[in-house]
Amino acid sequence: MELSINETKVQVTAADDTPLLWVLRDHLGMTGTKFGCGMALCGACTVHLDGKPIRSCTTPISAVGGKKVTTIEGIGATPAGKAVQEAWLTLDVPQCGYCQSGQIMSAVALLKGNSKPSAARIQTSKHQQPPGMVIGADGRSGPGSLNHGLSRATTIACQCLGADRAVHM
Ligand code: FES
User: Fold this and answer.
1) Where exactly are the structural domains of the chain?
2) What is the position in ligand 1's atom list of the atom closest to the CA of 41?
3) Residues 110 and 104 sit within 8 Å (Cβ to Cβ)
4) Which residues contact 124 (CB under 8 A, 6 or more apart)?
5) Is the beta carbon of 130 within 6 A of some atom in ligand 1?
6) Which of 51, 80, 131, 149 has the fewest other C-beta atoms within 10 Å?
7) Ligand 1 midpoint to CA 45 (Å)
8) From 20, 24, 31, 42, mutation site for ligand 1 pocket: most ligand atoms within 8 A of C-beta
9) How many CB atoms lie within 10 A of CB 7?
10) Average pLDDT per consecutive 10 residues, the chain (169 residues; last block may be shorter)
């Protein structure tokens, strides 16, 4: 089967029901997309399919053929992806970092669909957190700071993109 991954055509031999996540990680060696729950709940495996966020752990490759897959390895080539990643680094958002690729992909998807989301919209659209992660006040020692950083990074990326709304995301 031919897949389009980050604007590159690749040939993959796998059963039709193989989850896209395992094709990316095991067949193509693209380990930036993470496995968390395996049940479309946590968002660690989020990639874009024709620009829309999907859970790659539950998406069979039979549903992917002919469509464009964008992963964390390729999202920085888009203006929205570049802005989110730069804001991510500026704010030092990662803690353990395991979930950040899924969070970045979710944040970029939000900005692509809404270039000026409200703070409430950012809060409600954030990547679902794994068990133990809570939304809290800023503080570098706790998991709540990751959520706070995620919100701030998304907001800053939005502001950066607002400087050039003509840019195609
Ligand atoms: S690993 Fe896919 S949603 Fe959790």
Assistant:
1) 2-70, 75-162
2) 3
3) no
4) none
5) no
6) 131
7) 5
8) 42
9) 10
10) 96 97 98 95 94 96 95 95 90 83 90 76 57 33 52 69 45
